[in-house]
Amino acid sequence: SLLIRHQDYHGAAAAYRRITEIDPSDADAWTSLGDALEQLKQLDEALICYDKALLLEPKLFAALFDKGESLNEHGRSSEAIAPLEEAHDEKPGDPEVLYEYAFALYMGDKNRTSEALQVDSEAIRLNPHYPAASELKRAILANAPATLNIREPGV
């Protein structure tokens, strides 16, 4: 929305609250309200909004992705895996989704480090100029236990 693009998160939250009061079945409005609240550091309220959007439209990409990204940003990567996996199912070739999903896998489930590397490598393949994905790949390779015998995909 225009208010979010201009970083008027308080105004955006107020506007989207009003929209959801008028039409509580508007999944996009719930998602946008969640986005505004997340920017205001009100994560728990934002998550409630994303969940309301997903109750209305279970495959709504924006709600799935934004929920997962918000959880990642707040150190709750293990909880981010499920919504990001679903977002990945909706947009499998999106480098940003792949990166966020790989980050959640790596930070949220140490048993899925190999999978995180594969997913992140796909993000880099699709967008070789994605610095965050390249940094994640370096971190995975540098910190992987030797017992996992992780190699770069294709090597």
3D architecture notes:
This protein has helices at residues 2-5, 9-22, 27-39, 43-56, 61-73, 77-90, 95-108, 113-126, 131-143. Helix 8 (113-126) packs antiparallel against helix 9. The chain contains nine helices and no strands. The longest helix is centred in the first third of the chain and has 14 residues, at 9-22. It is elongated and about 50 Å long.
Q: What topology emerges from the helices and strands here?
A:
Elements: H1 2-5, H2 9-22, H3 27-39, H4 43-56, H5 61-73, H6 77-90, H7 95-108, H8 113-126, H9 131-143
What's the gist of this structure?
The protein has 155 residues and is mainly α.
Mean pLDDT across the residues is 91
Question: What's the multimeric state?
Answer: single chain
Portion of residues in helices? Answer: over 70%
Query: What is the global morphology?
Result: elongated
Q: β content, as a range?
A: under 5%
Weakly predicted, low-confidence segments: none
**Can you count the helices?**
9
Structural class: mainly alpha
Q: What is the terminal-to-terminal distance?
A: 44 Å
Strand tally is: 0
Over the alpha carbons, how many angstroms does the gyration radius reach? 17 Å
Provide the succession of SSEs.
Answer: HHHHHHHHH
The major sheet is characterized as:
none
